[in-house]
Each structure stands twice: as C-alpha cells, then as structure tokens.
Amino acid sequence: MPSYPHRTTREDLRVPLPDGTELYARLWRPATDAPVPVVLEYSTGRLTDWTATEDARRHPWFAGHGHAAVRVDARGHGNSGGLPPTAATAATAATADRLVEDGADLVRWLADRPWCNGRIGLLGTGAAGALALRIAARVPDTVRAVVTACPDGPHRLGGAVLAADVHTRATAHLADAARPPDPLYVGDDWRAQWLARLDALEPPLADWLAAPAAPAPAAAVPTLAVAGWSDPSAAAVLALAARSTAAVPVRAVLGPWPHGLPDELLPEALRWYDHWLRDVDTGAPGVSALRSWLGTRWSADDPWPSPGVREVRYGLDGPLRAAGTASEDRWVRVRSPQHTGLNAGAYVPHGRPADRPPDQREEDGRSVCFDSRPLPEPLELHGSPALTLHPAPGSGGALVAARLCDVAPDGTSTLLTRGVLTLPADPTGVAAPADPADPDPVLALAPVGATVPPGHRLRLTLSSTYWPWLWPGADPDGFAVDPSRSALTLPVHDPATGTDAAPFRSPTLPLPPPLHLTEPLTARPERVTVHDIGRREWRTELSPATDGTRTHPDGLVRAEHTVTAYRILTATPLSAQARTDRTLRLERPALGWDITVHTRTELRCDAAHLLAHTQLRAEEAGNVVFAKEWHHRIPRDVG
User: SS3 of 94, please?
Assistant: First the structure.
C-alpha cells in the first residue's frame, strides 16, 4: 500500500431512501475524528464485482488524501434494494428522473453523517457522468463540485439514428440489471429480490431511440469535465467549457484517451475537490478553461472559445477539389455502396486495438473526395469544423456522412474527425433549400485536436451512407451537391496565442485485489469483416477483449461472453441488420450458487421504423426461472 497523508478504513453500508428502499454502498474514509468532505460515485454498475477493481484502486486514494470516498449501487442494481427504473441508464432527463431523485436523497443522507463536513463532490463516467451533473443541479447547496468524465449524450446524430454501440449497450444494460443480488452480501432474500427485479425489467432501447435529442446537461456547480478527443462526449465537454461563468466555473481537459477517466487526471480531480470541498487554495479555478492535446503538444486556452482559434474557409471548388470532376459540371453526385463505414472503428473507444479507425484509403475509395494541395506549414486544428452544403433538388432526406482526413505523402489516410447530417426536405418533397434565399444546411463535424504536418494534404470525403455507425436511409440514390456553393470551415489554432500546458502524470495508486482471469482457449478476434461476394453481402462481428472468466478474492466467479454482428447487402439499404448476444454467469461454488443471464437484441429497419426484438432468459443452476421477449416498432423520425 503506498504511503498517503491519512490511513484509511473501509466498510459497507446500507443507505435508506425516503420510500424505505436501501441502497448498497461501500465507504473508504480517512482514519480521523474530524469531519471530512465526501466524494460520491453513484451508478448502475455493481460495486462488488463489475467495478470492484477500479473502485479498489481509486477510492482508497481519495480517502488517503482526506476525503471520504463512497461508491453506491443505484436502485434495483447490484446489491441495492428496489426495482430498476425503466430505461434508468438513458442519458435523457425524462428517463433518469428516478435516479436523480434517489441521488439527491443520497447526497442529503451523506451530508448529515457525523463524519461528513456537509460538502459533497460527485464523480461519474459515461451515463454516471451525465447523472452527476443532473444531481448537482437538484441539490447545488450540498453538492459543491463535480468531476464528470465522458458524459453520455443523445442516441441520434445529425438527424440520423445511431446503429453502432446503441443496441450493444442496451443488451449489456439489460443483462446487468437482470443479475441478482449477491447472497454473500444480502443473504437468503436474494432470490425473492431477483425474481421481482426480473419481472419489472424493460429493455431501455426503445426509450433511448424514441427520445428526441436533448441538450447536454449544464453545470450547476464548479465542474471539471474530461474526455478524449475521439469520444462522442468531446462536444459536450467543449460546450460545458464554453458556458463557464465566474459563479459556476468549468474547467475542461481533452486528451488522447479512450472512454473513461484516465489515471493521470486523478491529481487534477483531487485538486478540484480540495479547493471546493476543503477550502484549500489549490489554484484549481485559476487554470485555463481548456487544456487539450493537439497531437504534438498540450495547449492551454483561456477563455474557451479561444481568441487564438480562427475560422478558415476551404471552398469545395478551390482549396479543396474533387479529382476527376469536370469543371463545367455543376453537381457532384454522391452515391456510396451500403458498406461504406466498415472501417469507422468503435463509436465509443475503450482503448482496444481494434477500436481505432484503420487507414482510411478503402473508405476514401467508396466516397467522393475533395483534396487540398500539400500544406506548406503545420496546421493546428482545435475545435469543431463545419461543412456548408448546397444540395441539388431531389436530395431531401438523404444521409450525408463527411470525414476529414490527414493524407501523408505515401497515401496513408488518417481520420481526423467526422460528422453526419440528414438533408432537410420541405413538405412538397423538394430538397431544402428550395428557395435560393434560404440558408444552406450545415453539417457539424465532431471536435478535433490535431496537428497536420507540412507536406500532408487535407481530404474531405462525402458518402451517402455510414454503416454500421448509422442506420441507412431507404433511398440508395444518395445526393448531389454544388461544390461552388459548398465550403468546409476549419478551426485553425495559432500556436503563438496558446500557452503550452504541462503534461499530466499518473499518481501511485493502491494495488487492486488480486483478480484471476481465465481467457477463452479459442479467443475470438476483436473485429472480423467478411465479404460474401456471391450474395454481395458484408458481415462484421465484434467480440470485446474483456470476455473471459474472472475469479474475485471473495470467491465469486464471473464469466462474460458478448458477440455483436452487423450485416448489409452492398446495394440494398433496408437489408441492414444488427444483433448482440450477451451471456453472464455468476457462481459462488462454496454456496452452491450458479446464475446465468442471456440477453439478445436484434434490430432491422424499414423506411420509417426500426424493428427491435429483445430476449431475456435467466437460469438458476441450469434451470430457466424467467424468460421474456419484447417487440418494439420505433419511429425513425421523432421530431
């Protein structure tokens, strides 16, 4: 155990809610008689198995530095009582209300403990990161600071419906919620609680996809927001930084990380909590509004948006030009094969080798490309590019997928950022803008922090599909644009205006409890793509590297197996299908306890709907104790 300013203790608690439900909690706190602030992590993850390893590394570290660190399972999850709220893990406020109310009650209970000084800091990643922001808005007098990492966002992108990750996450959430309480921690009542939990479950997928895009939650208390540039939450982190005020300061960090809170930012989190919860002048509010990795250096910009970033316009008929397009041809037609997007990489990168998008030359070949000349000097990109398009009549309703790539002299094409847009159509069916006075549609690309070397070229690509990230539209004819009235606007950073920021260093954390991993004898590749030439079909299978059997120090044996598959015919958009199968097994050999949960989600589409079929089967010692299926017809257009 590393040496910290405080010795620490650990105990498990049950936190009563006003309705009598008890939440299961684990508390690490410094061995002192003086009241201390609380750092609370509250989520639907299971603290006795799924998050146990990370919890045992990070929360004792916070406790060793003077904060009581509390990890709590949400209602109906893990070893907490009650029933899981319907679609509880969705990132929309409407479906998360029960979790927010419970979180607010949890905060009030913790603030009243004799060992607490009445100040609470919230910590969360992903859905829990978005939830922390909403709880802070409900009880801002007690929650004094938030650290949010990769806060979840909507399940629609530029008017299109996400295919990547959504059904996989929904399948995982259903499986996780269907796991029983652990008899080692809740006793003989586990089975009755489990059966009640199973009977109350509803798949979250339909609620997720049927909800219109909601704005990202705002900061109500001092907030430190963190993400990786390639994470879909990067835009939300920049939006939080842009809304920083003197009363509610926000400081943001964007780096080269996968999804999650990187270890090297834990000292920044501690610095943030010390300042707002312990009245220690750490200088945390005085750091720059945004610190970000730009590919070659760390930059510090204050305020954000930065005055050191200027918008540079690249016309699609000048600085960027499509090869092979006749100069007298006004319209450039974009009609992509339906498997365009197979090399997109993971929608939410978790740091696995197959998560990163590979060389984009194959994707470029399936798209229309607009290339610049070789750059005479380095180009720092810092912010959110925007693409203004002038579509041809008849293009309304078409999907536009845009990618911006860095093309090296040897032809290697590296993805920098991307974005999508469903072209608007007016009630007459004529593509908008029908009136020349109407504004052209603007496609927002994801934020980017990168440096393009001299001698490299910029490449903007347009495609009419992006599978399996997005559900394809019904019409395979694509769209056409007028390059002379279309332009890409890039956020170009002046290196002379931004100061260099110091790199971040990982602290020395406690060693986690020993966890024995037994990998499958025939491990599946993380990502495999098969082209069936005879059927003109493309199939992709994904299997996470986290599959395997884990034996925990308390005797729990936990096995996981997940396979996600996508398929589509090259010329038939409505042939798209997606499926995820997930199996979880929990065993306590000493107790004779053996539980298996199987979940499956299958998705197809027609012109106006997504068709979802969800299955859940739960077994005890190999005997089926619960089985249920759900069918949902989800409108593509939810307004």
Answer: coil
What pLDDT does residue 521 have?
65
Alpha-carbon separation of residue 62 from 27, 43, 539 (angstroms): 11, 18, 46
Torsion of CA 151, 75, 65, 510, to 10 degrees: -90
Least confident of 275-279, 377-381, 424-428: 424-428
Q: Cα(85)–Cα(74) distance, rounded to whole angstroms?
A: 9
DSSP string, 303-368: SSS-TTEEEEEEETBTTSEETT--TT---EEE---TTTTTT---SS--S-GGGS---THHHHHTSE
Can you say whether the dihedral through the CA atoms of 517, 520, 521, 525 is positive or negative? negative
Average pLDDT over residues 61-77: 97
Gap between the Cα atoms of 630 and 625, Å rounded: 17
Please report which confidence band the pLDDT of residue 329 belongs to, taking 50, 70 and 90 as the band edges.
Answer: low
Say if residues 560 and 583 touch (Cβ distance below 8 Å). yes
Angle 218-220-223 from CA coordinates, rounded to 5°: 85
For 606, other C-beta atoms within 10 Å of its C-beta total 11
Q: Do strands 537-542 and 557-569 pair parallel, antiparallel, or not at all (unpaired)?
A: antiparallel
Query: Tell me, what DSSP letter sits at residue 199?
Result: H
CA angle (314 as vertex; 312, 315 as ends), nearest 5: 140
CB 88 within 8 A of CB 200: no
Residue listed under structure tokens 């006003």? 18
Q: What is the pLDDT of residue 153?
A: 73
Q: Where are the alpha helices (DSSP H) in 356-507?
A: 361-365
Distance CA 425, CA 312 (A): 29
d(CA 477, CA 264): 48
* pLDDT tens sequence across 194-226: 999 999 999 998 888 877 666 677 899 999 999
The Cα 492–Cα 309 span in angstroms is: 5
CB 233 within 8 A of CB 150: yes
AA letter at 607 = A
SS3 assignment, position 435: coil
Contact 417, 423 (CB under 8 A): no
Summarised one tens digit per residue, pLDDT across range 70-88 is 999 999 999 999 999 864 4
How far apart (Å, rounded) are the C-alpha atoms in residues 622 and 112? Answer: 45
Confidence of residue 451 (pLDDT cuts 50, 70, 90): very high
> What confidence tens digit (pLDDT) does each residue in 557-615 have?
999 999 999 999 999 999 999 999 999 999 999 999 999 999 999 999 999 999 999 99
Please give the structure tokens belonging to residue 422.
């469903």
Radius of gyration of the chain from its Cα atoms, rounded to whole angstroms:
25
Q: Which of 217, 223, 265, 261 has its CA nearest to residue 241?
A: 223
| Long-range contacts from 561-566, C-beta under 8 angstroms, 24+ separation | 561/520, 562/168, 562/171, 562/172, 563/524, 564/167, 564/168, 565/539, 565/540, 565/541, 566/163, 566/467, 566/468, 566/539, 566/540
> Residue 519 and residue 543: Cα distance in Å, rounded?
13
Give the separation between CA 617 and CA 174, rounded to whole angstroms. Answer: 11
Helices (H), 112-204: 127-138, 166-177, 183-186, 190-200
